[in-house]
Structures are given as structure tokens and as C-alpha cells.
Amino acid sequence: MLAQERYQIILEQLGAEGTATVGQLSALLGASEATVRRDLNVLAKEGKLNKVFGGATSIRQLGLVEEHVTKRETLMFEEKDRIAAYAASMIRDDDFVFIDSGTTTACMIPHLRNMKATYVTNGVAHAFRLLRAGFTVYLIGGRLRSATEAVVGAEAMHGLLKYNFTKAFMGTNGISQEKGFTTPDVEEANIKQCAIERSFVSFVLADHTKFNRAFPVTFSRLDACCILTDRMPRGKFGEKTIIKEVDQ
What we know:
By secondary structure, the chain is an alpha/beta fold. It has helices spanning 3-17, 22-29, 33-45, 69-72, 77-88, 103-106, 124-132, 154-160, 186-197; strands at residues 19-21, 50-52, 55-57, 96-99, 118-121, 136-139, 143-145, 150-152, 165-170, 174-176, 180-183, 199-205, 217-220, 226-229, 243-245.
């Protein structure tokens, strides 16, 4: 695992729990405690966490330092691309599709082949890429959130309510057996929840590092969406919903 991937996982763990010990992070990352301590030193120097005896704490009350989308798009890229390719293959001629903003859903666009389907998105970069590729695309209106380049807010919610999607392809920050699908931001959670409720079937695209994590806001129960992943970690997630492991 690359150092940047470890940093992201450490920050997300602190975002979910507020604190973490070196031992806990070592088990989560599959790395030595010496490596974890070096990572914590780097992140502490960058002002992204508080290093304490035996571990670290979040620097924010809610606990999450959310990296900009440009910093996250290269993390786990090969896994994301395989998941996205499978998702893209599921689209049919008569589909009216919602594609959520996010780095994994963005990977769908180069793999899309169905020019007869119609696409709706709240991702500004997604919309431009779909348009340049020749697809019919609608971008919902609203406030543009800087960290994720996603359209959010009351106007975006109102725009979604007029649509009835056949399929929705969603991103997530965390997947928890107890808390469901979670994300750091309330407004993004509202958009995700609304899109799922307006879709006949919804798929959450998530690489294996997203499992067993919980963030401040739940946007869906596990049984409301199917999960597309590269591989599923140990646990009882398969008892909660349908899961497709694209690497199997």
C-alpha cells in the first residue's frame, strides 16, 4: 500500500472514531507499528491530526479532514477502474441513469458504451466528460461544493425530485454493518439519499478499503443498495445486501 493510501485511511479512521491507537491503525493498514508512527508524524507536521502518546486524535470536533477530489482520484485507481467497468456494462438502451459525483463513479465514463441511455449527474466534471464523449447528459443545479466538485443544496434536491431513474450509481466514503452507507457532509448525504429513493435500483461502487468504516452522516441502509466492489473483507455484509465482487 502506498504512503498516500495509508494517510487517507488514517484520516478517515480518525474522522469516523475521533481517536485511534498505533495498534489499531497497524491492524487496519496491515503495516508495522513503526510505519504507522512515521505516518502519524508526517500527518501531524502537515496539521492534519494531533499526535498523542500511543496514537492520534482528530483535529476537528466531527473528526474528518476531507481531502480534495484531485488528491483522492489516484488512490486505489486500478480497483476503482475495474469496479467502474463492471458498472458501466450494466447500462441498457432504455436506462435513465443517475451517476453520483465521486472518484469511483468518474471511472465509469471511459467505459460507457451505450449512447441511447440518458445520464443525470451532480458531478460537474462528470457532466463535462459525458458531454465531450457525446452522451445525453443533464447536470442538476445548485451550490457547488469545493472539496468534491459536487452540486448540493436545496435547489439540487428540488431538481432531483422530478426524475425517476432506472439505475443509480453511487459513491460512498464508508460502509458499516451498523450504520449503513456513510459520508462526511450532510448536504451530499441528502443528495445521495434522494437519488437512491428516486431510482428503481441503486448500486454503490466501493473498493475494499471502504468497508468497516463509518462517517458522520448515513445516507442509506445497506439493504437499499447493491454493492459493487473489487473484493469484500471478512464480515457479514453479504447477509445485509447483494454484493458483486468484480475480481472473483
